[in-house]
Design brief:
The complex is a heterodimer of chains A (260) and B (330). Chain A is mainly α and 260 residues long. Chain A is 71% helix and 0% strand. Chain A is elongated, with a radius of gyration of 22 Å. The chains are: A mainly alpha (260), B mainly alpha (330). Chains A and B meet through α3, α4, α9, α10 and α11 of A and α1, α6, α7, α8 and α10 of B.
């Protein structure tokens, strides 16, 4: 499913002759062979917008999710490995960011930025989404820290960074991959929500922006279902598929969860 | 237990302090100048603009040193002064927010609690029940993956426009003024139902999945196997498992609050429901920065209070934290 959309993102633009903001045809047309997903109130091609809108979703998922995973990893590893005061301090920061509703934070940042791009959006999402990852990884690191092979590495004089990356990290690889997948999906959802309120990127098109436009320009009242259904289906399908992939991986790594 | 609470409260106070500081910082260090924007909209002549700029700078207290601005901000905050709205001039921000809050509580509280309870019960029920598990699980994942606003739009479209059963905008019929009568309550309830349903459904999926996984995990624990080996009925084993599995779900509720609030905001926007979310949209569209700041603060305070309430509930539900043995994990 994810692959399907990924492929669509890459090859999609080749199937349309237009740019997402072009006014290509008659207004408010239902789907037809000419305009696959119909057209908007202004005569923009919904399919074109849809295909172009997929790209930012993956971009934001990749960068936002990746960044969140990375920061979470870094803080989790350090806090879990060092323990003591460092741990106390990092834990406090984590707790604070955890309690602040990140969305409200994103909202106020986005509201004050006059020019916004997908990249900035992704970076901000990454910087606010890491706490639960940090917490989970810290707990895991904690339990790995006192294992024999880590002790051995420490005694043999390896430096802490090397221990973390060559001894501890590989043991949690499966977990890290799952975290990344979850963050990926989460970032897409957050971005869509931001776009929907009108705090998304000021240029370009995304799935959330499509929904925003559809609602703003009365697609509901005009019964133009072809305008607002595709972006939502895409988001739900991508994120849902990611979650299900995660369960699959979980069952592979953790036999206890498998169905009897 | 005292230590546990002292720690928690310390964290909350620190968080609040942080949040307020951010709220104060962001407008001042973001590119662009709000006053300039304000004046640009008024399109004055150059000399007039200069005078006005000076006036606004003084009016917003921007002519004193930075540290004093910061202290003033705190001072005003404790007096309940969040500034004056630009969009609904000259009403104070706090008044506008206070008017929106009842709708939020009315919408959010039932949606969160009911979906949490129903989701947990259902998840526990579905775990290890073959056919339910197979249908519920994918459905649950798709529900949690659905953007709140999209489900809202869908519901509004199907039930509001195609079937015409429920109204799709506002909190009560436009023909009425808020008053206490059955007709009004009926109207309010009808307007409330769709936003409630869309919030409920998305959250329900998440809780059901979480609970299902927790129950399976607990059923694999030693005490469950022991009970089974003793020949305890399936129902009893499940009861014990449920009581253990509910604890992470309570913590989960606290962690999810931020996401839920975000979902509620957009749902309100879809249904033009006059809560904080709708207010924020209006504030953004009108570049009403004081109102945005006020809403931000309000959400923070709300989430902090809710978190604190959950902490208290956790202590009541989990006897271990009361004795102070295992409380440090939270």
């Amino acid at each position: 499913m994810v692959l399907f959309f990924l492929v669509l993102t890459i090859v999609g633009p080749m199937f349309t002759d237009y740019l997402p903001d072009d006014y290509v045809g008659p207004r408010a047309q239902p789907p037809s062979s000419e305009y696959w997903f119909g057209t908007t109130t202004f005569g923009q091609d919904v399919f074109t917008q849809f295909v172009y809108g997929l790209y930012p979703a993956f971009l934001i998922g990749m960068i936002g999710g990746g960044l969140a995973t990375f920061i979470g990893m870094l803080i989790g590893f350090i806090a879990g490995y060092r323990g003591g005061l460092v741990d106390e301090f990092l834990n406090m920061i984590t707790n604070i960011v955890l309690v602040i509703p990140t969305f409200a934070l994103l909202l106020i940042i986005a509201a004050y930025l006059t020019v916004r791009g997908f990249l900035i959006e992704a970076i901000f999402i990454g910087f606010t989404a890491w706490p639960w990852t940090a917490r989970a990884i810290r707990a895991q690191t904690f339990s790995l820290r006192s294992r024999d092979f880590v002790d051995l590495a420490r005694i043999s004089g390896m430096n802490p960074l090397k221990i973390i990356f060559t001894e501890i990290a590989p043991n949690m690889m499966s977990y890290l991959v799952m975290v990344f997948i979850l963050q990926f999906g989460g970032a897409i959802l957050i971005a869509a929500t931001l776009d929907f309120i009108g705090l998304g990127p000021t240029t370009g098109i995304s799935l959330g922006l499509m929904m925003n436009n559809a609602v703003l320009w009365g697609a509901l009242h005009l019964g133009m279902w072809w305008w607002f259904i595709p972006p939502g289906v895409a988001i739900a399908a991508i994120v849902g598929a990611l979650y299900i992939t995660n369960v699959g991986l979980d069952e592979v790594f953790n036999p206890k969860l498998r169905e009897m | 237990m005292k230590r546990y609470f002292a720690r928690k409260i310390f964290i909350y106070i620190l968080t609040f302090f942080f949040a307020v500081t951010i709220d104060w910082l962001i407008p001042r260090f973001m590119p662009g100048n709000p006053i300039q924007n304000l004046l640009a909209r008024a399109s004055l002549r150059a000399e007039a603009a200069k005078v006005m700029y000076g006036y606004f700078t003084r009016a917003f207290g921007l002519d004193v040193p930075i540290w004093q601005q910061y202290l003033n901000f705190w001072n005003a905050l404790f007096h309940g002064d969040l500034g004056i709205s630009v969009y609904l001039f000259p009403q104070p921000v706090i008044k506008i927010i206070m008017r929106a809050v009842p709708y939020d509580i009315f919408l959010l509280l039932p949606a969160i609690l009911l979906s949490w309870i129903a989701g947990n019960k259902f998840g526990a029920f579905a775990a290890r029940t073959k056919w339910l598990d197979n249908t519920v699980l994918p459905l649950g994942y798709i529900l949690t993956a659905t953007p709140y606003m999209w489900l809202g739009i869908l519901l509004a479209w199907v039930f509001g426009l195609v079937l015409g059963i429920f109204p799709i905008s506002g909190a009560y019929s436009l023909a009425m003024a808020p008053h206490f009568s059955w007709i009004f309550i009926w109207s309010a309830l009808r307007h409330w139902f769709l936003p409630f349903a869309s919030l409920f459904l998305v959250m329900f999926g998440g809780w059901a999945i979480g609970m299902r996984n927790m129950i399976i995990y607990e059923l694999e624990a030693d005490y469950s196997h022991y009970l089974e080996a003793l020949g305890a009925p399936r129902k009893l084993v499940r009861k014990y498992a449920f009581r253990n599995a509910i604890l992470p779900q309570i913590t989960g509720l606290a962690l999810q609050l931020g996401v839920i609030v975000a979902g509620a905001l957009v749902t309100e926007i879809v249904f033009s429901y006059p809560g904080i979310g709708y207010l924020i949209l209006a504030a953004i569209q009108n570049q009403d920065y004081f109102l945005i700041q006020g809403c931000f603060l309000f959400i923070i305070v709300g989430v902090l209070l809710a978190n604190f309430a959950i902490d208290i509930i956790y202590v009541i539900v989990d006897p271990r934290t009361r004795i102070g043995m295992a409380g440090e994990t939270a």
